[in-house]
Amino acid sequence: MAGVPDPESVSDHCFETAIIAYMLAQQIAEPVDMGKVLAMALFHETGEVRLTDLPRRSAPYVKQFKRKAEQDASVDILGGVAESVLPLLEEMHELETLEARLVEAAEELQIIAAAMYYAKENRGDMSEYRRDAEKYDPLGIGPAAAVAEVVKRRLGEYLGEKPYWELGYSRHSVADDRAKG
User: Fold this and answer.
1) Distance between CA atoms of 83 and 122, rounded to whole angstroms?
2) For the whole model, what pTM was predicted?
3) Taking the CB of residue 129, how many other CB atoms lie within 10 A of it?
4) Cβ distance 126 to 160 under 8 Å?
């Protein structure tokens, strides 16, 4: 949707998330169950095998049932093969453990870093990711916050003054505008 030729695959995203999570875990003082971290990171997009990777701008329309659909797809895909991963995916989505927060912080960091790389290479329109970089939540993972600041700064440099094209992405319809008068 952003016009990136030859974009990363979901497996690229998961692999890079795992690497970032591993590196972040090495930088914090708290003990981390690295097996959980890596399994969460590598399998966190399992549901997308059946659902595809829905763009962030679809969230207002599908968020209420996307999570359930991803859970159901993960059960279908991993059932009888790697069922031990299912509780880890649930743990990740709940964000209550250090490992879950670490992987979620790494995943979001991977997304904005990929946008930064694409912007540097002038591959597609990465302007909407400026917001993601600004809203990045490190979930208490200090090293992730430090890296995100560098990514945010560099992304801004690569994008320059290029604005995000808002037209066509509002959550209300033309009919709503007409009704308001």
Assistant:
1) 41
2) 0.87
3) 24
4) no
Cβ-in-10-Å burial (0-12, 13-18, 19+) of 47 comes to buried
Report the distance separating Cα 26 and Cα 141, nearest Å.
11
User: Could you read off the pLDDT of 2-19 as tens digits, one per residue?
Assistant: 888 888 888 999 999 999
Mean pLDDT in residue range 33-56: 90
Evaluate whether 49 touches 112 at the Cβ level (below 8 Å).
Answer: no
Tell me which amino acid residue 135 is.
Answer: K
Which residues have C-beta within 8 Å of that of residue 153, sequence separation ≥ 6? Answer: none
Of 76, 50, 155, residue with least CA distance to 112:
155
Residue with tokens 């208490």: 140
- What letter represents residue 140's amino acid? G
- Residue 1 and residue 8: Cα distance in Å, rounded? 13
- CA geometry: angle 119, 142, 113, nearest 5 deg: 15
Fold classified for 10-162: Hypothetical protein af1432 (1.10.3210)
- CA–CA separation, 127 vs 84, rounded Å? 39
Amino acid at 103: V
Q: Which value, to the nearest 10 degrees, does the dihedral of the CA atoms of residues 14, 16, 19, 23 take?
A: -120
